[in-house]
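S1.2 Input.
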Amino acid sequence: MFFRKKKNASGSTSVQIISKASGRYKVVKTIGSATDPREIESLTFKAKQEIEKLTRQPKLFGFDDDRIIESAFEKLENSSIRTVGPEIVFGKIFDHIGFNVLKQEMFRHLVIARLAFPLSKLKTAEYLYRYQGISHDINSIYRFLDKLNNQLKDQIEQISYKHTYRVLKGNISVVFYDLTTLYFEASDEDDLRKTGFSKEGKHHKPQIYIGLLVGLGGYAIGYDIFEGNTYEGHTLIPFLERIRAKFNLDKPIVIADAGLLSNKNITQLQEQGYEYILGARIKNEPKGIKYQILSKTYADKDTITIIKNSLTKLIVQFSEVRAAKDAHSRKKGLTRLENRVKTGKLTKTSLNNKGYNKYLKISGEVNIEIDYEKFNQDAVWDGLKGYITNTKLTNKQVIENYSNLWYVERAFRMSKTDLRIRPIFHRIRNRIEAHICISFTAYCVYKELERVLEEEKSSLSVKQATELTHNMYQITYTLPESKHTKSKLMKMDEKQTELYNIIQEKFRVSQ
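S1.3 Output.
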């Protein structure tokens, strides 16, 4: 059914409603005729209204329905509209990975809130009530945190490991380990939070260490928490043995950065039968090895191999890109150091080997100045990177495997920025451990979303996808006649629709 404008012999225009049946057109109704364009437009509007009545498809905001629509909206409350994007996206992935088998509603809410709106626990409680209509007293959250780690950590690691095993198709032959510090806003120490060397420059604040083990691609295997004054080199072997026993792992090749490099670690790894690739501190090698490294003229990507003993070899590669980066970093560090010297506030305590302080020296009794000769001598190391290994892999394979260490470094970076795992305001050990447990689970969900977006070749980043969930709404309403209550997703924009369709398609059946 449609309307038409028909020119009459008199010069007027008639507006008619036409139907088509059995291939024939029939005038259903003539709305009227006019010569003035404004009157014709008015007749056209009336024709549209009449068609809506005749076809029983009233327009949403039609002339006759204004009062009904306004009445319906008057009955809506703030609580009728909910932000459901985080549950639609992250909740679906949470279930798919298998965390739903824990049957812990509070845990689910806290993990999804950590992904969508990473806030303090007090703010999380406010978020859950305001946006999800879920009322959780802050004290009930704290009571849950007090028992979470002891009850759930082992199960959570098992679930995340099984998921990683599925994603990597059983290839857990290479693992990546790294350690980071997380500091606390509170100034007092206890048996867990200790002041120590901080990778974030917060040496005056109590901290803890987090050890994280991931597989290829950065998919999580397990984590552990260590006291803040622990020497990071002492964390590797106990952590590996716990994880290997827990998951019945064959001994994988262990890849870690130079912070885990120590003779004791290397000896223990070899005694335990592990193969490893560790970042080397080539400037700390004996004079004979340093001479071998520096006596060669390198082109881009050139490598040399130095046999250290019957089990271990040192591989050194030169990179022009790394050389430019090293030179830039040294110059930037020197500029900062020069500015500090100009203040005249440096003392003997500033003379240490931390960062670019190694370029400081004492001139006379109390004058602190920069040792430019030492700074210039360091330029010979620009672009050189070393790797210690006992594997039978080729140099190229060693370097390629080590380059994947960025996955675990990126995992920490995502946890600290996107998931805002730090700073931590808790001071009770159980709650600290629970906070890390929630963040670890959130990281597993985050990584799975990233994997699916890449697999689907989506233009969306994980961060963009997260932001899109913030205004994916659902409205709940009661029909005036039947009194039935229904819920309906509100219309999404193009990118939200893309994300929604990907999630619905990929996670149709939870595993």
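S1.4 Remarks. The chain is about 45% helix and 20% strand.
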